[in-house]
Amino acid sequence: MSQTLPATIPASLFEACADSIADTARELSALGWTPATSSNFSMRIDAEHAAITVSGRHKGRLGRDDIMLIDLDGHAVGTEARPSAETALHTQIYRRWPEMRAVLHTHSRTQSVASRLFAGDGVIRLQGWELQKAITGYHTHESTLEIPVFPNTQHMPELVAQIDAWLDAGKPLHAYLIDGHGIYTWGRDMAETQRHLEALEFLLGCELDLKKLRAS
Ligand SMILES: CSCCC(=O)C(=O)COP(=O)(O)O
Ligand SMILES: [Zn+2]
């Protein structure tokens, strides 16, 4: 894939973001969280652009050519490549929060099962877990961390509207699940975003275990 950059974006900046995305994706794939080409990843480049994974690539085997530039309307910039089918969910985060610089979306088994199990409630309420403190802004296990579960759809504007409605109601949002699909989370840099993702994977696993044990 050939990527031409606007004069305002240094190649070194784009390449550093592409490498960070590819390295993180390889780690997440090794954990089994990105099966069968699923999942997508991005990093903000500047106020108007982000680097994002090309659609359909295996996320465990990404190189620089598998990451492309988009504007925050989701259009490809300087390339014929096709950005992630879920680009609108990434650009929504960058447009709403200028301080957010990385978005990770994965499809682990735990995330997928939890999304189905809690879809009826529309939300998973995490309470009493020390690891909630891995989420920026949470300082005690006594807090309640709400992870909404939105119905899945192939029509991205519908998903964007559901997320906008949650936020417009003034509710905090650090991550969400999509029913039968996976999780989205974000942060001010890749390390914070990866920490959020790892914590949420762990916490969702704990909730699933508790449900099983209580039912037995
Ligand atoms: C084969 S997984 C279905 C699409 C999906 O949910 C996903 O995360 C990957 O889509 P992309 O276009 O970003 O490769
Ligand atoms: Zn997906």
From TrEMBL:
<keyword id="KW-0486">Methionine biosynthesis</keyword>
<keyword id="KW-0028">Amino-acid biosynthesis</keyword>
<dbReference type="InterPro" id="IPR001303">
    <property type="entry name" value="Aldolase_II/adducin_N"/>
</dbReference>
<comment type="similarity">
    <text>Belongs to the aldolase class II family. MtnB subfamily.</text>
</comment>
<feature type="domain" description="Class II aldolase/adducin N-terminal">
    <location>
        <begin position="19"/>
        <end position="208"/>
    </location>
</feature>
<feature type="binding site">
    <location>
        <position position="105"/>
    </location>
    <ligand>
        <name>Zn(2+)</name>
    </ligand>
</feature>
<keyword id="KW-0862">Zinc</keyword>
<dbReference type="InterPro" id="IPR017714">
    <property type="entry name" value="MethylthioRu-1-P_deHdtase_MtnB"/>
</dbReference>
<protein>
    <recommendedName>
        <fullName>Methylthioribulose-1-phosphate dehydratase</fullName>
        <ecNumber>4.2.1.109</ecNumber>
    </recommendedName>
</protein>
<keyword id="KW-0479">Metal-binding</keyword>
<dbReference type="InterPro" id="IPR036409">
    <property type="entry name" value="Aldolase_II/adducin_N_sf"/>
</dbReference>
<comment type="function">
    <text>Catalyzes the dehydration of methylthioribulose-1-phosphate (MTRu-1-P) into 2,3-diketo-5-methylthiopentyl-1-phosphate (DK-MTP-1-P).</text>
</comment>
<dbReference type="Pfam" id="PF00596">
    <property type="entry name" value="Aldolase_II"/>
</dbReference>
<keyword id="KW-0456">Lyase</keyword>
<feature type="binding site">
    <location>
        <position position="107"/>
    </location>
    <ligand>
        <name>Zn(2+)</name>
    </ligand>
</feature>
<comment type="pathway">
    <text>Amino-acid biosynthesis; L-methionine biosynthesis via salvage pathway; L-methionine from S-methyl-5-thio-alpha-D-ribose 1-phosphate: step 2/6.</text>
</comment>
